[in-house]
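Complex record, two chains
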Amino acid sequence: MIKNNKLWLLAILTITLFSIVPNQAFAQQGVRSDPGFVDLDGVGGLNEFFNRDPKIDVSVEGALMKLVAEASRLEDPELANLLLKLKGVYVRGYETSRSESERARGHANKIGQDLVDAGWSSVIRVRNEQEHFQMFARYRGETIIGMVVLSIDVGAHETTFLNIVGNIDPGQIGRIGQKFNIGRVPNLD
Amino acid sequence: MTMLEHHDREWLNNHIEAYTDGELSAKELIRFNDIANADQHIFEDVRLARQIAASLRSVPQDQCPEHVLSGIMAHVRQDIRSSAWGRFQSFFLKLNVAHFRPALAVAMLFLVVLSSTQIGNPTKEPTAQVSQALDEVKWTLAFLSEVGRTTGTTVRSDVIEDQVIGPMSRSLTTRSGN
């Protein structure tokens, strides 16, 4: 009877430990194994390509994304509802010279091809003298579950790679994004 | 003595002390007097009861020593506690906990999962990290909105330039050349 009790106690303790400890870790791991996630550093080898850390480095995912959504609820409920549908937001932004920008175009083309080979759909592609812009989307049925943007603005000396994971409504993102100021770059204040 | 008289006598005996102490209600007092008036011996009993009460009141009362009182009270409190614990134990023994172990384990698991999800729930005041992340997400959305707008314009310009203005211009040049 005592042995039986100990077994029960052990089982309950094991379940308890396995329930608490990996909960937060799974939240992050879950996003990173999502088909809408793209490891910008890994796929593009960006830091190696530019040979420096990004000027803009955003990685908001998992539990932090939920906290951000709830933190914005009072100020902007529509933004909160949008963010609750997102699982992760990742941005790598580099300040690039004209020659670097030209070189980055070729690299962006390669990344784009890798994404298409991996099952992503090319949604928009703009190439002219001043800019190189590509947008890719990953679909599950009719729903967009991942978005990747590769943007090289030669005039502004900015090269930006972006990945959003989650249930994405581009119209909603565009509409809500208009409300915010793009001038202030995060991580640099 | 009739059955009714026997009943009245018993009632009277039960209430005689309350009568001498003046604790009967108006209705009871009327009934008491009605019964007593029918039997004058009752007043003799009343007189005797008053005499006993007065004698008892005249007997000096000893004070219970403080240490005895506190000892008795401690004993009483312990009895109350042990009887409450006994009732608590007997309740769970009657439940036959062995049958409820799977349910208890599931309930505990549910509580643990619920509490661990609550750990990640937002607080009312966002931390600096959350505020920073919110700024970053807003910036990202603004960036997307901006590139979407400029790209839309560029696409339209490219389409208009390549497919409308260019051909029209070439057409006009060709005509003027003719």
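Note: The interface with chain A takes residues 101, 105, 108-109, 112-113, 116-117, 119-122, 126-127, 129-151, 154-155, 158 of chain B (CB under 8 Å).
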